[in-house]
Specification:
Blueprint (H helix, E strand, L loop, with lengths): L2 H12 L4 H8 L3 H9 L6 H11 L11 H7 L6 H9 L4 H14 L5 H9 E7 L5 E8 L14 E4 L15 E6 L8 E6 L2 E9 L4 E7 L3 E7 L4 E10 L3
Parallel strand pairs: 1-3
Antiparallel strand pairs: 1-2, 3-4, 4-9, 5-6, 5-9, 6-7, 7-8
Length: 242
C-alpha cells in the first residue's frame, strides 16, 4: 500500500468505518476507496484531505504536519499495531459518552495515528546567523532522542556564506547542530567569537587555546583563548543545497 493509503485506512479503521461507508459519505464508489487504500489509485492532496475530513480527522488536528510531510517521513505500518491495540482496549462507558460528544462537536479527537506521529517526528527549526528561526525540517525521534540528544535541543544552522566551503559547507547548506559547550577536537562546531556566530573546524592547541579554522578561497585560522569563545554546538550532519 502507499503511505497515504495507509494513513486513510488507519483512520478509517480507527473510526470503525467500512470502505462502503466512507465512499457513501464522500460520494464516490467503494472501489475507489479500496483502490486508494491499496495504493493502486493515485489521488491529489486535496482529495485525500476531503476523505480524511469525512472520516472525522479535523484540519486543525494535523496543522503541524502536512500530508507531504507524512508521506515522505512516516512509516505508517509501524503505527498500525499501536492503533489496533488502542482500538481493542475497551473504555469505561462514561469516557465513551464524553468521546462521542466530542466527536459530534469537533470530529475525531485524539487520533491514535496523530499520537504516534507526534512521538516519532519533531519539527526542528532552521536558525540563521542571529539565531532566528527561518524554516523547519522534520526529523525522526528514535528512543526519545535525535542524534542521541534531547529533541528540543537540536537545530539546523543555515550556513550564511562560503567561509567553510573548503570543508564542503557552502552558503545555504543546513548543518544539524547538537549542543556542546566544550571544544571537540577535529569537529566542525558552531561558535560565537568576537560577537559573531560561525561554523568553524576546531583544533585544540592546549588547555587554554583553540584554533578556529575556515577555508574559503584559501585556508585561514585564528588562534583564540578558550575564555573568548562560546561553543554552541557540534555539527553532526549536513544537508547540502544543489
Amino acid at each position: 500500500m502507499s503511505r497515504l493509503g495507509d494513513l486513510i485506512r488507519t483512520e478509517r479503521v480507527r473510526a470503525k468505518m467500512t470502505p462502503k461507508q466512507v465512499a457513501k459519505k464522500c460520494g464516490v464508489a467503494e472501489s475507489f476507496i479500496v483502490a486508494v487504500e491499496a495504493g493502486t489509485r493515485i489521488i491529489a492532496d486535496d482529495q485525500a484531505r476531503r476523505i480524511l475530513k469525512t472520516i472525522g480527522l479535523k484540519e486543525h488536528n494535523e496543522a503541524d504536519f502536512t500530508l507531504d510531510d507524512i508521506a515522505a517521513t512516516v512509516d505508517l505500518a509501524s503505527v498500525q499495531p499501536q492503533m489496533a491495540k488502542a482500538v481493542a482496549q475497551p473504555k469505561p462507558k462514561a469516557v465513551e459518552k464524553v468521546a462521542s460528544t466530542e466527536e459530534k462537536d469537533e470530529g475525531v479527537v485524539g487520533s491514535v495515528w496523530l499520537d504516534a506521529l507526534t512521538s516519532v517526528l519533531k519539527h526542528v527549526p532552521v536558525m540563521n546567523a542571529v539565531m532566528k528561526p527561518v524554516d523547519h525540517k522534520l526529523l525522526p525521534i528514535q528512543g526519545g532522542k535525535i542524534e542521541g540528544t534531547n529533541p528540543d535541543k537540536v537545530f539546523y544552522f543555515l550556513a550564511p556564506d562560503d567561509s567553510m566551503r573548503g570543508f564542503r559547507i557552502h552558503a545555504g547548506d543546513h548543518a544539524l547542530v547538537v549542543p556542546s559547550q566544550s571544544p571537540v577536537d577535529g569537529a566542525v562546531m558552531l561558535v560565537e567569537y568576537n560577537n559573531h556566530r560561525y561554523l568553524r573546524k576546531v583544533k585544540k592547541l592546549d588547555t587554554y587555546q583553540v584554533l578556529l579554522q575556515s577555508y574559503d578561497r584559501e585556508y585561514d585560522a585564528v588562534t583564540a583563548k578558550l575564555g573568548d569563545v562560546n561553543f554552541i554546538g557540534r555539527v553532526v550532519k549536513l544537508e547540502i543545497t544543489l
